[in-house]
Amino acid sequence: MSLQVSTALLERAERGDVDDAEFVDVVRSSLPYAWEVVSAVAADLSTAPAPFADHAIPPPNEECRGQLLRALASDAIRGGLERHFGVRLAFQNCHRVAAFSQSAVGGEQYAAFISPRGQLLNQSPELRDC
């Protein structure tokens, strides 16, 4: 589940910084399930009545679960996705992903989602293995 980086891009990275758009393109092609989930919550945010939109459907298989974990556990990947979509991502239980508007970060709903209480309330017996 490594990122699939072209030789040319890897060589440029060895010489210095790479363009954010190129990095995000690598994420898009390497982690398609994660890209699909994040792009969907980012799109849903524009029509959501709340200051966030979320995806709470468990991944269809372990490969997809791994992609989502990889994307959201990596500071670089998560940050690249947040900059690309202009949102703040929040994550619970190996599959629940939320996109918050930047103006909602620090607000009551954001704080509730990322709180220990929010995490505990999002538990269920079928999710304890993730």
Topology (SSEs and partners):
Elements: H1 7-15, H2 20-30, H3 32-45, E1 52-55, H4 62-73, H5 75-85, E2 88-92, E3 96-100, H6 108-114, H7 116-121
Antiparallel strand pairs: 1-3, 2-3
Helix pairs in contact: 2-3, 2-5, 3-4
Pfam families: KH_NucS_shadow
Structure description:
- The protein is mainly alpha-helical and 130 residues long.
- It has one domain (7-127).
- It has seven helices and three strands, in the order H-H-H-E-H-H-E-E-H-H.
- It has helices spanning 7-15, 20-30, 32-45, 62-73, 75-85, 108-114, 116-121; strands at 52-55, 88-92, 96-100.
- Strands 1-3-2 form a three-stranded antiparallel beta sheet, sandwiched between helices.
- Strand 2 and strand 3 form a beta hairpin.
- The two termini are 17 Å apart.
Unreliable stretches (pLDDT < 50, length at least 5) are none
Task: Give the biggest beta sheet.
Answer: 3 strands, antiparallel
Helix/strand-derived class?
Answer: mainly alpha
Span between termini:
17 Å
User: Please, what is the average pLDDT?
Assistant: 87
Number of E strands: 3
* Secondary structure: helix percent: 40-55%
Per DSSP, the total helix count is 7
Query: SSE order in H/E notation?
Result: HHHEHHEEHH
Strand order of the largest sheet: 1-3-2
Strand content: 5-15%
* The number of domains: 1
Q: In one word, what is the shape? A: globular
Rg of Cα set = 15 Å
In short:
The chain is mainly alpha-helical and 130 residues long. Helix content is 54%, strand content 11%. The protein starts with 6 loop residues before the first helix and ends in a 9-residue tail after the last helix.
